[in-house]
Design goal:
The complex is a heterodimer. By secondary structure, chain A is α/β, with parallel strands linked by helices. Helix content of chain A is about 25%, strand content about 25%. Chain A is built from 2 helices and 5 strands; from the N terminus they run E-E-E-H-E-H-E. A 3-stranded parallel sheet of chain A has the order 4-3-5, sandwiched between helices. The longest helix of chain A has 15 residues. The mean pLDDT of chain A is about 95. Chain B contains 18 helices and 16 strands. In chain B, strand 5 and strand 6 form a beta hairpin. In chain B, helix 7 packs across helix 8, helix 8 packs across helix 9 and helix 8 crosses helix 11. The model of chain B has no long low-confidence stretch (mean pLDDT about 95). Classes of the chains: A alpha/beta, B alpha/beta. At the A-B interface, strand 1, strand 2, helix 1, helix 2 and strand 5 of A face helix 1, strand 1, helix 2, helix 3 and helix 4 of B. Strand 5 of chain A pairs parallel with strand 1 of chain B.
Chain lengths: ~100, ~450
């Protein structure tokens, strides 16, 4: 058993995390417009179009809109978010790889 | 996350299963632990429509429940209070580690992912104090902030924190201003990108000689104490200063990257270069000391010399061998640099860069088909951002520039044992003063 020594912690300082509000859920998707938001990464468009086909086949009362983000996923896209808020009821965002 | 919290739209995020831990962790540190997330198998890329339909119609590989059932529930099932998480939470970083034996502390640092898995110099108070004597700056002064990815929170580090990591790397106090300057850039050397990025750091000016850095034979290899430990300190500071670099949670590089061991850190061979030093190109004086950083370092092309007959084709082929989403930085031995002057008449470095820009071309259809171009540049093109929007208008067979001219760089390094040189695929970020951190 060697001598006990004191050393410093190398980790930086984390910021305070504050809770962000989550949107209220819908009672039903019937009659609602769901945006399928394409992050434009690694063929996510092909995937979301299959999801759109699945929804049309299994939940025909749900209206879907396929919507690619305006630019690259690293850039905020307020125009798209405003469109979805104003014209839609819910969003499915994909695909995070 | 933005659309859910800022715009009030009920949202479900779909990810591939390899990212379950990282996206849950990102949700927590963004104050949304209950964000609804559903998983499908990895990969999406390259799968047929029928295969992807099967993903949609199949089970979430994390929960074993039907993907679409989870999505519908995610949009319609109300949140329970526990899902929303605490109103706020803090994560304190104690200044000291619980005292223990040297062996146990070495083990603890490894277990906590505080190292690069090689033995470290334990940062005792005496060693950290000695490192702090390498600068006039106060120990509690904030040097910078880093994060491993765009979606994570920024962590902050002080002069003392940089000193702790510098000690761990085996650096000497006289190197400390260079390490502080690297920290001041805020450019992480431990990106979490699945592309397995590393960084590169080039030191210019009088500090190179003051701390005996190597710009000659073996400069990029394990043959110089300052090069080796400054680069290692930059990596350790990055992973610890930003709050971690842990595979599966805050590091997703699919193959990893050996360049990350010391972040390709070296000095430019200004004395043997036919051109002005790199930092002078970026607004510093020849008598200033500065360090420049690149990220996205993964790919390397290599050759010997600049041949009289076909050098244009050779260089063009090397450039076309790089992924077009990551621009080239040429690392030229002085022999190769002078050959470029002789063969091409590039009396100025800018003239060589002009030539590289003009000759790094490929047919438009080939360019746009690269996956990383599709992921990162095609969206910007369709958004109308130049020069990519203009490239999108080119005919499929038209040769278009692979890179932006301003993203191409040249650095001279090497000991003239021969005229070997290489191209690093690397994205230049910034140049920081070393002198302000003395």
């Amino acid at each position: 058993m060697g001598d006990r020594i004191t050393v410093l912690n190398p980790m930086g300082f984390a910021p305070l995390v504050t809770r962000k509000e989550l949107a209220p859920r819908l009672n039903t998707l019937d009659g609602k417009t769901v945006y399928l938001v394409d992050c434009r990464f690694d063929d996510s468009d092909v995937f979301l179009k299959q999801m759109q086909a699945w929804l049309a086949s299994h939940l025909p009362a749900v209206r879907t809109v396929f919507k690619p983000i305006s630019s690259v996923y690293l850039v905020d896209d307020p125009a798209t978010w405003e469109e979805i808020r104003d014209r839609g009821h819910a969003a499915i965002v994909g695909v995070g790889h | 996350m933005t659309i859910e919290s800022k715009y009030g739209v009920p949202t479900v995020a779909v990810h591939t299963d390899k990212f379950d831990r990282v996206v849950r962790s990102v949700s927590v540190v963004n104050g949304m632990p209950g964000l609804r997330q559903v998983f499908v198998p990895q990969p999406i890329m390259g799968k047929t429509a029928a295969e992807l339909y099967a993903y949609v119609d199949g089970l979430d590989p994390i929960t074993g429940r039907p993907v679409m059932q989870e999505i519908v529930e995610g949009l319609t099932r109300p949140f329970e209070e526990a899902e929303r998480g605490p109103l706020a939470f803090e994560r304190a970083t104690p200044r000291l580690v619980e005292p223990d034996t040297e062996d146990n502390l070495q083990r603890l640092f490894v277990d906590n992912h505080w190292t690069d898995m090689l033995p470290i110099v334990l940062p005792t108070e005496a060693r950290v104090e000695a490192m702090l004597r390498g600068t006039r700056r106060r120990p509690d002064e904030v040097v910078g902030r880093m994060r491993s990815t765009h979606f994570r929170e920024q962590w902050e580090y002080t002069v003392e924190k940089v000193a702790v990591n510098a000690v761990m790397a085996g650096a000497r106090p006289e190197y400390f201003p260079v390490i502080l300057a690297l920290g001041s850039t805020g450019v992480t050397a431990r990106s979490s990108s699945s592309s397995a990025m590393a960084s590169m750091a080039v030191v210019n000016g009088p500090v190179r000689d003051e701390i005996a850095m190597n710009a000659g034979t073996g400069a990029l290899g394990p043959y110089n104490h300052a090069n080796a430990t400054i680069g290692r300190a930059y990596g350790l500071l990055s992973q610890n200063g930003q709050g971690g670099s842990v595979p599966g949670t805050s590091y997703m590089g699919n193959q990893g990257n050996n360049y990350a061991y010391n972040s390709v850190t070296f000095a430019e061979n200004e004395e043997r270069s036919p051109w002005e030093p790199f930092h002078v190109q970026h607004g510093f004086g020849p008598g200033d000391s500065a360090v420049s950083v690149w990220n996205g370092v993964r790919s390397t092309a290599f050759t010997l010399g600049v041949r009289e007959r076909h050098w244009r084709e050779h260089v063009g082929d090397m450039l076309r061998g790089m992924d077009p989403s990551v621009p080239p930085t040429l690392l030229l031995d002085p022999i190769a640099a002078r050959q470029f002057v002789d063969r091409g008449g590039f009396a100025k470095k800018d003239a060589l860069i002009d030539w590289l820009y003009d000759h790094a071309r490929m047919p438009s259809s080939q360019y746009w088909d690269y996956q990383l171009v599709q992921n990162y540049l095609y969206p910007r093109a369709t958004f109308g951002e130049e020069p990519w929007a203009g490239k999108l208008r080119a005919a499929p067979d038209e040769p278009i520039p692979m890179f932006r001219r301003e993203d191409i760089h040249v650095v001279v390094v090497g000991g003239e044992t021969n005229g070997y040189w290489r191209i690093m695929g690397a994205t230049y970020q910034k140049t920081a003063s070393v002198d302000t951190w003395r």
